[in-house]
Amino acid sequence: MVALRHAETALEAVDLIKTYSAGRNKPPVRALRGLSFHAAPGTVFGLLGPNGAGKSTTVKILSTLAAADSGSARVAGIDVAAEPDRVRRAIGVVAQRPGTDPMATAAENLLLAGRIHGMSRRDATARAGELVGRFGLTDAAHRPVRTYSGGMARKLDVALGLVHRPQVLFLDEADRLADRIAIVDHGTVVASGTPDELKSDLRGDAVLVELAEADPRARAVLERMPVLRDVTMDGATVRGRTDDGARALPAVLAALEEAGFAVTSATIARPSLDDVYLRHAGRGFDAAGGGAEGPAAVRTLEAAK
After folding, report:
1. Same domain, yes or no, for 71 and 167?
2. How many CB atoms lie within 10 A of CB 237?
3. Nearest alpha-carbon partner for 298 in 199, 185, 177, 195
4. Backbone dihedral region of 175: left (phi > 0), alpha (psi from -120 to 50 degrees) or beta?
5. What is the CATH number of the domain that holds 232?
6. Residue 160 domain-assigned (yes or no)
7. Same domain as 182, residue 70
8. Which residues are bridge partners to 187 per DSSP?
9. Mind listing the pLDDT tens digit for each residue in 218-256?
10. Mean pLDDT calculated for residue range 109-132
11. N or C: which end of the chain has fewer CB within 10 A?
């Protein structure tokens, strides 16, 4: 990927490589294999992929918690390796686990976070009041966080990440809100674009058939059908694409029955991000070792707000 001018991008990764030692007498684990992407200011950018794809390692490098073996990365125009302290001041992080003190109130948690970031007590108090209002927590601002519902506690976690007005916010969720997505597999980006762009490349409907038993011969049966294309098989699950799912499904079931394969379920669906991953990686998220969860989304802000 050609690097963009720093002012044009909020996040930029270029040919990142990262290898971890797996211990004595074990081959090293190559977590990133030349991973590259960029994200524009004012967008939500998602990293999707199964467990072990390289998402967590990428976020650790961008947030200065790990160093790449080679390649470069910039956050808010700042070189991550050369100026890590500046990067830390420019980012906010919302982790998967709560970062609040459950015995303290929302106002107290936010005040403490502001003070840790170097804000004066007056400014931190004002910012805390602003954020509890923005997140609809005003009525609960002086209640202990341990009395909050799960949704309220999560809102407070996001508010904590925004206390110091970061230019980039890392979230361990929210991939469904992404304006643009990079799908990661085995430490590299296999596809990127908006969700609609990625799905539109897959014409027609997805046909998914669950067999009673896994048998690779079922794939060969469906590959011979002219109504199907891109036929793949993961265990007992056979997938294919067709221009008209409603018409193709009866023929698919009839062909499998005639060949002696028992079907437990069959569905038709519009293209999903799992189908996109399947097309580029040759297997679905589940078969690759987990769902599309993990450190997945980055909110890039045009200006501190």
Report:
1. no
2. 16
3. 177
4. alpha
5. 3.30.70.100
6. yes
7. yes
8. none
9. 999 999 999 998 898 889 999 888 988 888 999 999 999
10. 96
11. C
